[in-house]
Design a protein that fits this description.
Blueprint lengths: L4 H16 L9 E6 L4 E4 L15 E4 L4 E3 L8 H10 L5 E5 L2 H8 L9 H7 L4 E3 L7 H10 L6 E4 L3 E6 L2 H24 L8 H20 L8
Parallel strand pairs: 6-7
Antiparallel strand pairs: 1-2, 1-5, 2-3, 3-4, 5-8, 7-8
Bound molecules: zinc ion (ZN).
Zinc ion (ZN) binds next to loops.
């Protein structure tokens, strides 16, 4: 078994689970994980059906995006994923989807205010909008990198989709689900045209502080273990 095999398997399992739940469709979106202790990441190939994907199809890239393993062309968004890992040592998994309800909010450029405890605890103070830039380009990568400073774990990409981060892939995939639930509830509330209530500010800060604690713990895992 190769060194990277467990990471590849985890990506395939998560991609297929998210496809079955309707968050990923056909070949849209992409998933990556950081390879701990190394400046490398494993990522889904571009334009490849998730339900046909096997661990051998997953690409492993060095930090400079040089391909270390995998026969397919890696996701066109590889540079976006690499930029996130560089800016956010707490992030060990990135899931980019075109999930429908979050995408609808990305079309009307409506950031999601702090509506639910669970949302702030896992996604951040709000779910903000990352301005539009063309897929797979330097401008998109640079815009996304700039937005990482707020330590949030979910973002809406204008006229494109959603971006969810986590300290592991399981967490990032759960964040995809939380984001979609919040997006649908927020859209329905917006349709009512009535005043939308938010959670109280002190509660928001307590919950966000818990997320920051998780993130600080996750940052420790980036450093190679001593004596290895
Ligand atoms: Zn996309």
């Amino acid at each position: 078994m190769g060194t990277f095999d467990p990471y590849k398997q985890q990506i395939v399992d998560t991609a297929q689970a998210l496809t079955a739940m309707g968050y990923l469709m056909a070949t849209g979106g992409n998933i990556s994980v950081r390879i701990p202790g190394q400046n490398a990441l494993a990522i889904t190939p571009t334009n490849y059906d998730y339900m046909k994907m096997t661990p051998e199809d997953i690409c492993v890239l060095a930090g400079d995006l040089r391909r270390l393993e995998g026969e397919h062309k890696p996701s066109v968004e590889s540079s976006m994923h690499a930029a996130i890992y560089q800016r956010r040592p707490d992030v060990h998994a990135v899931v980019h989807t075109h999930q429908v309800y979050a995408s609808a909010l990305a079309l009307i450029k409506a950031p999601i205010p702090p509506l639910f405890d669970e949302q702030v605890r896992f996604l951040g103070r709000e779910v903000g909008i990352i301005p539009y830039a063309l897929s797979g380009t330097g401008p998109l990568r640079d815009t996304i990198a700039r937005h990482m400073a707020n330590h949030h774990n979910a973002y809406l990409m204008q006229n494109h989709g959603a971006l969810c981060l986590g300290h592991d892939l399981e967490r990032a995939a759960h964040n995809v689900e939380i984001l979609e639930k919040c997006s649908l509830a927020y859209l329905l509330a917006l349709c009512s045209e009535r005043k939308i209530s938010k959670i109280p500010l002190p509660i928001r800060e307590i919950l966000f502080a818990k997320l920051r604690e998780d993130q600080k713990r996750a940052e420790q895992n980036v450093l190679p273990a001593g004596g290895e």
